[in-house]
Amino acid sequence: MPVTVTRVFDLLKYNLDKFPKEEFISGKINGEWKKYSTQKFSDTVDQLSKGLITIGIGKASKVAVMSPNRPEWNITDFAITQIGAYQVPLYPTLAELDIKFILTNAEVSVIFLADEALYQKVKPVCEQVNPAIKLYTFNQVEGAANWQELIDAGVATGDNIDLEPLRAAVTPDDILTLIYTSGTTGTPKGVMLTHNNLVQNFKSLSTIFPENVKTVLSFLPLSHIFERMITYLYLFTDGALYYAESMETIVADIQYVKPNAFSTVPRLLEKVYDKIMEKGKELTGIKRKIFFWSVALAEQYEQKNSWYYNLKLSIARKLVFKKWQQALGGEIIVIVSGGAALNPRLARIFWAAGMPVVEGYGLTETSPVITVNYFDNTMFGTVGPPIKGVEVKIAPDGEVLTRGHNVMKGYYQREDPTAETIDAEGWFHTGDIGEMLEGKFLKITDRKKEIFKTAGGKYVAPQTLENKYKESTVIEQIMVLGENRKFPMALIVPNFTALQAWAKFKGIPYTTNEEMIKDPHVLEKFEKEIEHGSIGFGKWEQVKRFALLANEWSIEGGEFTPKLSLKRKVILGKFKDLIEKVYKDAEDYKPVQK
Predict the structure, then answer these.
(1) What percent of the chain clears pLDDT 90, i.e. is strictly above it?
(2) Is there a domain that residue 497 lies in?
(3) Contact yes or no for 136/110 (Cβ under 8 A)
(4) What is the CATH number of the domain that holds 523?
(5) Does residue 262 lie within any of the structural domains?
């Protein structure tokens, strides 16, 4: 009898039944690939479930996992949820204050930790919150209990624990996971997502996902719902999953795995594109002309093109884009992008290069996908049509509302915020501003809370401006601001690799990043880039002043959320004095640097 997937852990029996494989989920740790067959993986999950039961974990218990992507993350995920416990993912980069809040709010009783560094980070927090919290590490850590102890305990139970009744007691509407929103402001909220939320999400996407995707690479954090849901989708569609060791090893890992697919955020695609363009600028003669002719051609790509365009594109793919494909393993069928807006120009270029990027949209609270562009249903500049079973409408004030199987059960122990977010008719208020094009393609224009009003009463949508300015190869990161100010300004982190190449081309000696952002030639270059990026925007929207920063923003530095969204409030606080100086010196019309 075929296995029906109604709860997330049904994926394991489904896999064993439909497409068992020797390399099911694999991870690269310390340079070595650790591989699990479907059978070995499933057996380990069951053993760990039994081990958890021996220490008192059962239905509605809360078990946390803090680890980078590796097979053990998935094993614990399935082992926790198939006995009805709630899995609580913790980002390895979480601050102590957030860890303390989550452990207390969720009443976590067990935590799985990847290594010694995370063990040393979390242990003192647990001693403050609740010394009874049990800690288990994946790596061998002196003085710490290892997760293998639980697996061994599960093996020792033999047939004394029957998991089947425990699985049967879990319904599709039961909570699968509590995911605490990293957010850009305020106290974290525990999003309650059910088995049905996730199952319906990946089932809906499976109908539009290419059937020939067999090998996938993962590097976005599993602690975020986007990568976690995509992982379930891969397992539902016969994908063999490989985890890259780190972003430092990603090039070698891609060449080893040669993936048919991977999921990413736009910023990483931008970095890939920038590196390719830098290499293109180093070319000379006919090779350089062919390279930039191909890129210009790619920028004009549409879903349906003339035969003449397709003829030229076939030449460009053979001469130029084939090398781009090889840089990403040479076997790409699809790239999935989410988490932030993808520049339409970049999307066109990747599609033209033979590496289609499908862009989706959603939030943690919506499991996460609300809409997605896919192969025969794509409009560049939008996030696509709603997935099956999901409704979208635009409120009178422009806010995007959604309703369907994807909407969360609510915020854990937070009735007021839940009622504020999900109205009486079941519509979830996303906080995003958007519009529907051609009656079905959703276009997101900005975050409702991020739109600001200048002193002149004009509204400015910063994300739209930022995405345009980031088309410049010398702009790595940018934040547009100007609430209650006479005009918008921007904080800019240059792409220092591109800046070095530009300086070399111009014959300008390059010293240090700190010195170069003060150089008059560099300041003039950025003035021109901002002027060019401002074309097409209203005068009140255009950035009039900017400040260059010498250090990149990061998750660790607190400027980014784990999904690489700007923490605007944090950045405003960090650079308060610099921002004030820019506006104070505005009459001088000279950029200010830090």
Answers:
(1) 80
(2) yes
(3) yes
(4) 3.30.300.30
(5) no
SS3 136: strand
> What is the predicted pLDDT for the residue at 594?
47
Q: What is the pLDDT of residues 545-578, one digit of tens each?
A: 999 999 999 888 889 887 778 889 899 999 999 9
Coil vs helix vs strand at 32 = strand
Q: Which domain holds residue 32?
A: 10-170+209-257
| Residue 380, SS3 per DSSP | coil
The set of residues, in sequence order, having a beta carbon less than 8 Å from that of 416 and lying 6+ positions away, is none
Distance CA 485, CA 415 (A): 37
Helix (H) or strand (E) holding 372, with range, is strand 369-372
Give the CATH number of the domain where residue 145 resides.
3.40.50.12780
Answer whether 293's CB lies under 8 Å from 280's CB.
Answer: no
Task: Give me the mean pLDDT over the 140-144 stretch.
Answer: 96
With a CB cutoff of 8 Å and minimum separation 6, the contacts of 257 are: 215, 217, 242, 244, 329
Residue 426 in tokens: 């079941």
288 vs 39: CA distance, rounded Å: 51
The whole model's pTM is what? 0.86
Residue 547 contacts residue 475 (beta carbons within 8 Å) = no
Task: Give, in degrees to the nearest 5, the angle at Cα 362 between 357 and 368.
Answer: 100
> What are residue 545's DSSP bridge partners?
489
Residue 335 lies in a domain: no
156-174 pLDDT, tens digit per residue, is 998 899 999 999 999 999 9
- Among 241, 257, 273, the domain-final residue is 257
The answer to whether 125 and 98 have CB atoms below 8 angstroms apart is no
User: Could you tell me if 79 and 49 are in contact, meaning their C-beta atoms sit under 8 angstroms apart?
Assistant: yes
Q: How many domains does the chain have?
A: 2
Domain finish residue from 257, 273, 297? 257
> Long-range pairs for 137-141 at CB < 8 Å and ≥24 separation?
137/112, 137/113, 138/67, 138/70, 138/72, 138/112, 138/113, 138/114, 139/114, 139/115, 141/115, 141/116
Write the secondary structure of 339-370 as one string of H (helix), E (strand) and C (coil): CCCCCHHHHHHHHHCCCCEEEEEECHHHCCEE
- Token pair 């104070």 is found at 584
| Per-residue pLDDT reduced to its tens digit, 397-438 | 999 999 999 999 999 999 888 999 999 999 999 999 999 999
